[in-house]
Design brief:
2 strands
């Protein structure tokens, strides 16, 4: 994360000094690392408690952030990869718009105001929608599974009255 932050600071201070790819790529790597660790914690937890639920939600949000970095990378390597319905002259995706598009795609809402035009952007959008759907399904299945395995243990600990 530190190399990405330093590169972003240099890019912000001296816009022509380094390419945005220099800081977006390490951010992608860091986001992937955090998302994998959260997912691993969620899927390997022995009990379903509040921490597991929080890790699942945080993992979902990290997936959205990870895809936002990927959209920024695609837009920086292939300009005009996205079209904007409300701003026809606009051609570049900024950080907020990337995160907005990512959340709208991950949740499969799809407002249609930001459109992936390039093939790479469309492929990422399709993959994100699929990952978002499967993530929720797997997370819910895991939480229900943890809850169901905890029920017999709780019943056996109770004393009959």
């Amino acid at each position: 994360l530190i190399p990405a932050l330093i590169a972003k600071w240099i890019s912000h201070s001296y816009p022509d000094a380094i390419s945005p790819i220099t800081y977006i790529t390490p951010l992608l790597g860091f986001g992937l690392f955090v998302a994998v660790q959260l997912l691993r914690f969620t899927l390997t937890a022995p009990r379903g408690d509040f921490q597991v639920l929080c890790a699942g939600v945080a993992g979902y949000l990290m997936v959205a952030l990870l895809w936002a970095f990927a959209y920024l990378l695609v837009d920086r390597t292939a300009p005009s990869s996205f079209a904007f319905e409300n701003a026809p002259g606009r051609t570049e995706l900024d950080g907020f718009s990337a995160l907005y598009f990512s959340m709208v795609t991950l949740t499969t809402v799809g407002y249609g105001d930001v459109l992936p035009v390039a093939k790479a952007a469309r492929m990422l959008a399709m993959m994100e929608a699929a990952v978002g759907t499967f993530y929720v399904a797997v997370l819910m299945a895991r939480l229900v599974s943890l809850h169901m395995t905890a029920l017999p243990a709780e019943r056996s600990q109770r004393t009959p009255e």
